[in-house]
């Protein structure tokens, strides 16, 4: 037959504290039914190692701890969301890393094998993967907009819209641009930063860091960003003549006013926007760099 342990009682306004005098207690089972509390466990009590149990009848039924239950449920939901978010970001970053690594390695190998000739057919060999990666990159604007990552929507939007304008409008829609060496420089500069940025984020998903990679992510953009914008500006300027000649995307006007407005006017405006975008994102990246290294220094002290 089970023995009864020594039980100490303490009480506050709405709470009761019970201390059961057992050491090395195992298989503890506590149940509350209405106003009766049942306890059963094995352990060392007043009668040595044994099975102990008791039932305690209280004056009123025990109130379920709703606040704690609600908090517990919320925490479980939050944990589920956090792990789903981590998996999503990790997979996204991994796919982008693989895509941009393929682009970077492919272009490097082709440059070594074919030399200058490789500059002229970059678009045909690389564009499909670049289209895929850059369409996928729109996810970064959504991540920022929905607060999945700690970054501003504007820098992400400038980055994605800026690159996709060059990729789809300037390169994608003009066959004459496909064989221009500028495609090589633009694609190479874009992919050169991404092979550091995405693995840096992948490690970040697991709160891990590799100092050299962090340094590369927050430093390599310094020469690459202005060079990238410069290469993109060259591509826009080269395309102006072609848009004028082909009248592609030109806006038709009523005959009384003139024939049409050339798309090149939009490109002149875009050239100004590009340097504005460069200024905004350069400042943003500089702030991110300072924030990252300042926090690290403070943590180290
Ligand atoms: C409004 C529309 C106007 C359109 C006007 C068009 C104007 C055109 C201008 C175009 C200029 C573009 C030129 C460009 O194409 C040229 C080049 O790209 S050249 C190559 C060099 N380029 C770069 O170096 C830029 C690379 N890109 C970026 O760095 C980002 O896209 C950018 C948004 C610019 C900055 O990134 P972010 O703000 O996210 O900074 P952090 O990396 O420091 O991240 C902040 C925190 O968020 C976490 N995070 C971010 N993303 C992820 C992710 N995918 N997965 C997991 N975590 C992520 C990150 O870890 C940081 O968290 P913590 O601070 O906790 O570490």
TrEMBL record:
This is Very-long-chain (3R)-3-hydroxyacyl-CoA dehydratase. Residues 2-106 form the CS domain. Gene3D superfamilies: 2.60.40.790. InterPro entries: CS_dom, HSP20-like_chaperone, Tyr_Pase-like_PTPLA. The keyword Lipid metabolism applies. SUPFAM superfamilies: HSP20-like chaperones (SSF49764). Its EC number is 4.2.1.134.
């Amino acid at each position: 037959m089970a023995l009864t342990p020594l039980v100490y009682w303490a009480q506050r306004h709405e709470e009761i504290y019970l201390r059961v005098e057992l050491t090395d207690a195992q298989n503890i089972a506590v149940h509350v039914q209405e106003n009766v509390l049942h306890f059963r466990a094995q352990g060392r009590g007043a009668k040595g190692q044994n099975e102990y149990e008791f039932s305690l009848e209280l004056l009123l039924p025990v109130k379920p701890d709703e606040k704690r239950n609600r908090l517990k449920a919320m925490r479980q939901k939050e944990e589920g969301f956090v792990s789903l978010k981590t998996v999503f970001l990790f997979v996204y970053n991994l796919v982008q890393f693989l895509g941009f690594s393929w682009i970077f390695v492919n272009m490097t190998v082709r440059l070594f094998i074919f030399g200058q000739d490789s500059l002229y057919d970059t678009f045909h060999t690389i564009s499909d993967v670049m289209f895929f990666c850059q369409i996928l990159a729109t996810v970064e604007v959504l991540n920022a907009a929905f607060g999945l990552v700690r970054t501003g929507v504007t820098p992400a939007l400038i980055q994605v819209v800026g690159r996709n304008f060059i990729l789809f409008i300037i390169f994608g829609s003009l066959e004459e641009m496909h064989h221009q060496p500028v495609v090589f420089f633009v694609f190479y500069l874009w992919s050169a930063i991404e092979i550091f940025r995405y693995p840096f984020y992948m490690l970040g998903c697991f709160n891990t860091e590799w100092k050299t990679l962090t340094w590369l992510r927050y430093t390599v953009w310094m020469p690459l960003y202005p060079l990238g914008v410069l290469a993109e500006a060259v591509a826009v300027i080269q395309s102006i003549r072609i848009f004028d000649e082909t009248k592609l995307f030109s806006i038709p006007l009523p005959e009384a006013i003139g024939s049409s407005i050339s798309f090149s006017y939009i490109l002149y405006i875009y050239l100004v926007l590009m340097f504005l975008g460069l200024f905004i994102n350069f400042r943003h990246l500089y702030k991110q760099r300072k924030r990252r290294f300042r926090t690290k220094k403070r943590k180290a002290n």
